[in-house]
Write a structure and sequence with these properties.
Length: 423
């Protein structure tokens, strides 16, 4: 029996291993992973497709990471969980027993049912295997793509395909792109840059059917949109989003909502069973509730908290919030917290836009405390503002300075600067 078993070897799994080894140098750790190489940055898979990075450059730990941490790595799929026997069942029927278990199974692409989705040339875009297949298809001559979804995943793969010379049509069900991150003004700025790069954007509908080529029905040849139009293409990339992989705990006593429910120690409703990363619903300090936040840095932190507690060191997860930092089509963007709220009289919105220089800054305040921000084009001061948000500092006395071009540490009261220097 392993003292610790971790299912999933990506961000949360790695964070947990490192935390456990800080406390327990000798306890046996077994990590179960479906991927032969899992220690790479998933946010960088668009760089892999564009040719900007190879797998070696994407690795977040060296190839000796598991050996250095005395970890038994089992590259097999976990297919079952027996809580009463404290055992994880693998795809070959063998069992791995545990004293403490971490479920870091991540998320999986959401793919709605579409006629023709089984055809050759339909891809998702969440891991290195997806990126490798897509790159091979482009290398083989494919040069027209339809990307379904214009959120974070959709915009990242569209940027990569465009850099490879692929003609892309992006199809988005909402009436604007990046609708979960940006308000209408910011979305229009980004959309203009994307269109300028040659991308065709279709909003307000989706894909109802994928058709084959005239000479090969099994290969993608075009898509039919929900309002009836047809777009020729060689590839379809489904980039709508991810859903938590909760299959292992289905039918068990582990409580789930949309993801696995955890407490501040990242422990599930079952003692000695923890969950972290995209599969877990962890604390959002802006919304003051637990929810899914499928973000790489938060997964690492959650994994570390779980690892400490598994090894006997009490640790509490301070919480995260929606945080996105991206740069596609030449525009740097930072979106944090309640960046695009619905109309609410309790919220105060501050905006500074410089259309000539493609700069847009927006802050959302509640009771003079920052609860959301969007920075587009000029993101240099976002770190200071995030500090104010994370520490719930009342900004009433200096909020008029927050969006000025010369805003910086000097604009903050001495008491805040002192607090920042002490942390």
């Amino acid at each position: 029996m392993s003292k610790y078993v971790i299912v999933g070897a990506c961000a949360a799994g790695i964070g947990a291993v490192e935390a456990i080894r800080e406390i327990d140098a000798d306890g046996e750790i077994t990590v179960v992973s479906e991927e032969q190489c899992s220690h790479y940055s998933r946010p960088m898979i668009s760089d892999f497709v564009s040719g900007k990075a190879n797998l070696e450059k994407m690795k977040t730990r060296d190839d000796q990471f598991w050996q250095k941490n005395n970890v038994t790595l089992v590259c097999k799929k976990a297919v079952g969980l027996n809580l009463s026997e404290h055992a994880v069942t693998l795809e070959d029927g063998t069992n791995v027993s545990y004293e403490k278990l971490l479920l870091a199974t991540g998320g999986k692409p959401f793919v709605p049912k579409m006629e023709g989705q089984e055809k050759e040339g339909v891809y998702t875009f969440t891991n290195i295997s997806d990126a490798e297949q897509l790159a091979q298809k482009i290398n083989a001559g494919a040069n027209r793509a339809v990307v379904i979804g214009a959120g974070l995943i959709g915009i990242s793969v569209t940027d990569a395909l465009t850099k490879r010379g692929v003609k892309v049509t992006m199809v988005e069900l909402q009436d604007k792109i990046l609708s979960l991150l940006l308000d209408a003004t910011a979305s229009e700025i980004v959309e203009a840059a994307v269109r300028k790069a040659g991308v065709n954007i279709i909003t307000g509908q989706s894909v109802q059917k994928i058709l084959g080529k005239p000479d090969n029905e099994n290969q993608v040849g075009s898509v039919v949109l929900t309002k009836g139009g047809q777009v020729p293409c060689d590839m379809v990339i489904v980039a709508i989003g991810v859903i938590p992989r909760t299959e292992l705990v289905a039918g068990t006593e582990v409580k789930t909502n949309r993801g696995i429910v955890v407490d501040g120690s990242m422990q599930t409703s079952v003692p000695n069973v923890y969950a972290s990363g995209d599969v877990a619903e962890a604390y959002d300090f802006i919304l003051n509730q637990n929810r899914q936040l499928p973000l790489w840095p938060l997964a690492v932190l959650e994994g570390r908290v779980a690892g400490y507690n598994m090894a006997g060191k009490k640790a509490d997860y301070a919480g995260g919030t929606n945080m996105s930092s991206l740069k596609y089509f030449g525009i740097p963007i930072v979106s944090i917290g309640l960046a695009n709220p619905k109309p609410d009289a309790a919220l105060e919105i501050l905006v500074n836009q410089d259309a000539e220089n493609t700069v847009y800054k927006k802050l959302v305040l509640k009771d003079n405390v920052l609860v959301g921000m969007t920075f587009l084009g000029a993101i240099e001061r976002a770190g200071i503002l995030f500090y104010l948000m994370k520490n719930k500092i009342n900004v009433q006395a200096f909020k008029d300075a927050l969006l000025k071009d010369d805003f910086g540490l000097a604009a903050l009261p001495e008491s805040v600067r002192t607090q920042m220097n002490l942390e």
